[in-house]
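hiii so um. not sure if this is the right channel but i have a protein structure encoded as tokens and i wanna go backwards to a sequence. like what aa goes where. can anyone help
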């Protein structure tokens, strides 16, 4: 099969992300990406300069996808506690099984190392927790910041699920967040 002459950056970055998920960020090399895409290593170096920039661009593209998915889900859920749960359960569906979740944690390390990618995470946190605040505003014990608390509960539930993944992640998350909302629905205001 002849070597392709070109490939859009989006496809190359998706291939780089897939390699990171499969083998870990440390194993992503221009040679591995060349083997996956059929482009020469020299061509890839010309386009991305170095491994750090390749990783940053691949993860920035992944953040773009997460931002889009989050916006789509936010637009589709009612601004109610049930909508908040549906939003976070919807975001949990992409984790799949335990192996996929573990692979994503390996990649998260790269997000935490890079200031640009950390800023993307902080921005996403703020958008997500703001919408969760809107959804939870009608609870008796609602207060500013409850959305961030719920997002933290969600992230914690993902981690606790990962130690004993006996049920699908979406089931575990929904049960955990339902208990969270019930606790604030019963609590007196003030």
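sure thing!! here u go:
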């Amino acid at each position: 099969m002849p070597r392709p002459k070109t490939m859009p950056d989006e496809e190359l970055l998706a291939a780089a992300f897939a390699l990171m998920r499969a083998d870990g960020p440390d194993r992503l090399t221009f040679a591995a990406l060349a083997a996956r895409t059929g482009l020469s290593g020299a061509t890839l170096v010309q386009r991305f300069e170095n491994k750090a920039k390749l990783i940053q661009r691949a993860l920035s593209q992944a953040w773009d996808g997460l931002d889009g998915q989050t916006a789509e889900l936010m637009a589709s859920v009612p601004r109610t506690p049930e909508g908040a749960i549906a939003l976070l359960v919807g975001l949990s569906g992409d984790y799949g099984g335990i192996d996929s979740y573990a692979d994503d944690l390996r990649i998260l390390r790269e997000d935490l190392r890079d200031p640009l990618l950390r800023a993307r995470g902080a921005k996403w946190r703020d958008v997500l927790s703001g919408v969760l605040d809107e959804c939870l505003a009608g609870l008796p014990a609602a207060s500013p910041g409850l959305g961030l608390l719920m997002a933290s509960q969600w992230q914690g539930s993902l981690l606790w699920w990962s130690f004993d993944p006996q049920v699908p992640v979406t089931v575990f998350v929904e049960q955990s967040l339902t208990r969270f909302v019930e606790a604030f629905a019963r609590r007196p205001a003030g």
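oh and The two ends are 70 Å apart (CA to CA).
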